[in-house]
Amino acid sequence: MQYPRVGVGVLIFRQGKLLLGCRQGSHGADSWSAPGGHLEFGESVEDCARREVLEETGLQLNSVQRGPYTNDIFIDEQKHYLTLFAVTHDPVGEPLLCEPDKCRGWQWFDLHQLPQPLFIPLQNLLQQHGADQLIRLAQPVSA
Q1: Is the CATH number 1.20.140.150 carried by domain 5-92+108-137?
Q2: DSSP labels for 75-123?
Q3: Model pTM?
Q4: Rounded mean pLDDT, 47-74
C-alpha cells in the first residue's frame, strides 16, 4: 500500500519576484518549480526549507514562515504528496545551479508572468488559493 509523502516547497521572493527552476530527472520533469524536497524524520518545515534551498540553490535563508499547503496527486507517476509551502523574503546570495541533474537553472519571475507549465503543487496552489494569495505572500511581513 502506498501512502502520501510530505514535500516542502519554498516560495522565495525578492523584490516581488518568485524564484523558480525547471525540473528534470524526476516527476514533474520540464515543469517550473520552487526549490524544495522531502521532509525528513524529526525535521521542522522551516529547517527542511533552509536545508533544501541551500542544497539546491546555495542560498541561505534567515526568516522562514509557514505558508499554505496543497494536496497533490501525480496520476502518471502514481505519486501522492501533501506539499507544505514555506515563504521567505530575505535570501542571502544569488541562486546557483547546485544540482544540475535535477534542475536546468534558477530564474526570478514576475508573479503576473509565471512560466508554463508549472509543477503540480504550484498549479494547485494557484487553483486552490488564487493568484491573489501568491501576491499577498510576496509581500514581506513587517515586524
Answers
A1: no
A2: TTTTEEEEEEEEEES--BS------TTTEEEEEEEETTS--SSBPHHHH
A3: 0.95
A4: 97
